[in-house]
Every structure is written in C-alpha cells, then in structure tokens.
Amino acid sequence: MEQKLFKKNDDGFVCLNCGFEVKPLGYSSRNHCPRCLCSLHVDINPGDRMNDCGGIMDPVFAEIVAQKGYVITHKCRKCGALRRNKAANEAKVQPDDVSLLISLTVAK
Predict the structure, then answer these.
(1) Which DSSP string do the residues of 22-89 spell out, in sequence order?
(2) pTM summary value
(3) How far apart are CA 71 and CA 49, in angstroms?
(4) pLDDT in tens, 59-107
(5) Rounded CA gap, 107 and 94, in Å?
(6) What is the DSSP letter of 107?
(7) pLDDT over 70 for what percent of the chain?
(8) How far apart are CA 75 and CA 61, in angstroms?
(9) How far apart are CA 40 and CA 58, in angstroms?
C-alpha cells in the first residue's frame, strides 16, 4: 500500500516576512501568506513540518496550471531550495492577492 506524503496542517500563523496574521484556510493546508505570498521552508513533504531549514521562502514565479489554477514557485532565502505550491486565490477566508499572483506570472 502506498503511503500518502501530504499531511493536512491548517494552523494559522503570523507571517515572518510581513507580520500579517494568517487564518487557517479551512479546507486544506495553508503554507504561505495571502498578503505577500511568502512561505517558510519547514516541510520535506507537504504539511509534515520536518525540515529544519526554517528559511523564508519568497515567491519568485507563478503559473496557471490546468485543473489547479495558479501555482506559486517559492525560493528559500537561506538554502536556495525551490518548492511549488497551489495558490489559494479563491479561498473564502483571506484569499491570495490576485494582483501579486498575476505580476509573478511574468517574473520569470
């Protein structure tokens, strides 16, 4: 039997980049700030909080992926790792900043 790598972890948090108080998404794991789109490098697999790097991950690019919508690529300031994450621009609680997502689609 195949083990699932995604672990739901939908806790609220305060963004270490901009100080915004981020509320839980309510239906999946929120891993980035909806205001500045920054994340933390804390997961090895989504939601596991097993990575000890802890660096701030900046949004460097966004693209529209069929059936997923916007997908954000983050780059860690500390170790340079790249990670992709689905945007929450259609969330009912604190949706991601769509104008920032759009600006990131041309940031490549």
Answers:
(1) EPP-SSS---B-TTT--EES--SSTT--------EEEEEEEEEETTTEEEEEEEETTT--EEEEE--T
(2) 0.85
(3) 20
(4) 999 999 998 899 999 999 999 999 999 999 988 889 999 999 999 998 5
(5) 24
(6) -
(7) 90
(8) 9
(9) 9
